[in-house]
Amino acid sequence: MGERVVRMLLAACGIAACGYGAWLLWELSPADRISVLVWLALGLFVHDAVLAPVALGVSWLLRDRLPVWWSRTLLIALGLTNVLILLALPVILPRPADDQIANSTILDRNFGLGLTVVLVAVWVTVFGAAVWIRRGGENLRPIPDPQLFDPRRSNPRTRPTSSA
């Protein structure tokens, strides 16, 4: 299949998933809908105001101290960490003592430990994959020249032309 067909199929699946989610949200009571919308808005705010700036700040501070491929690897790992933390916040944040849970089996696990294990697995996998790719991997294309993607260039997508 061509790249265009794959993209269209992925877009169709994404639109269908969004529609299904909206349909499920519509079946909730108005109070539950407001609660979900508040969590979505707060999640967006926490990501944009806290998590993304921290990840970008760390990668910016280390960009000149690390090789290009390590700094990119660090940025990937930080991005995945941000998403996982954001998804885990509802079950990790402390609940008020008087808050009654409708389904008591939901919070019967140690989610902090689970998040820690997943984060360790993500970081080990990301850095392991980076080392494997850096060493040549198995039947992988070579890593592109970092100069082609230099952010200081006016258009990083253009390749330098040789004058003959």
Could you describe the 3D structure shown?
The protein contains four helices and no strands. It has 164 residues and is mostly helical. Helix 2 runs antiparallel to helix 3 and helix 3 packs antiparallel against helix 4. The model has no long low-confidence stretch (mean pLDDT 79).
Question: Which helices and strands occur, and which strands form pairs?
Answer:
Blueprint: H1 3-26, H2 30-62, H3 68-92, H4 111-134
Helix pairs in contact: 2-3, 3-4
Q: Please state the average pLDDT score.
A: 79
Count of helical segments? 4
Mind telling me the C-alpha Rg? 21 Å
Share of β-strand residues = under 5%
SSE ordering: HHHH
Oligomeric grouping of the chains? single chain
> Structural class, judged by helices and strands?
mainly alpha
Amino-to-carboxy terminus distance: 38 Å
Taken from the alpha-carbon principal axes, the silhouette is extended
Short summary:
The chain has 164 residues and is mainly α. The chain has four helices and no strands.
Give the tags.
164 residues, mainly alpha, 4 helices, 0% strand, extended
